[in-house]
């Protein structure tokens, strides 16, 4: 069964992104991590509002950045193991597109 929703702007047109994703088995863990990240972002907001010391704020921003990178790396790993491997089994243009999509995502992560 495929999704009836329009693909997200960042998704590659013409690729069946399906309704099942590699991270789905760890969805609860990802959501818990993202909830903690939300709390960290709110904490940084509060620190700025309370005019706390710059270095303390920067330290928290560094921790938040690391937490987001951890989520991103986990999602990338799941994507490679699930979506890219599945596309590689199909082969052809689908596999090429999924590999390019993953490479582009890696390039964006490296640049940031």
UniProtKB/TrEMBL annotation:
Give the signal peptide as a residue range, or say none if absent: none
Pfam families this protein is in? Answer: Trns_repr_metal
Q: Give positions of region: Disordered.
A: 1-21
> What's the superkingdom here?
Bacteria
What is the protein's species of origin?
Answer: Georgenia daeguensis
The Swiss-Prot or TrEMBL record describes its family as follows:
Belongs to the CsoR family.
Gene3D superfamilies xrefs: Metal-sensitive repressor, helix protomer
Q: What is this protein called?
A: Metal-sensitive transcriptional regulator
* PANTHER family referenced in this protein's UniProt entry, alphabetically: COPPER-SENSING TRANSCRIPTIONAL REPRESSOR RICR, TRANSCRIPTIONAL REPRESSOR FRMR-RELATED
- Protein biosynthesis as a keyword? no
Report keywords, A-Z. Copper
């Amino acid at each position: 069964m495929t999704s009836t929703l329009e693909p997200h702007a960042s998704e590659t047109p013409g690729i069946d992104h399906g309704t099942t994703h590699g991270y789905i088995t760890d969805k609860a863990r990802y959501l818990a991590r993202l909830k903690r990240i939300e709390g960290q972002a709110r904490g940084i907001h509060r620190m700025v509002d309370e005019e706390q010391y710059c270095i303390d704020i920067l330290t928290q921003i560094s921790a938040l950045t690391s937490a987001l990178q951890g989520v991103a790396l986990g999602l990338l790993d799941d994507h490679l193991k699930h979506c890219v491997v599945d596309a590689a089994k199909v082969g052809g243009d689908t596999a090429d597109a999924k590999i390019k999509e993953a490479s582009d995502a890696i390039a964006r992560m490296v640049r940031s």
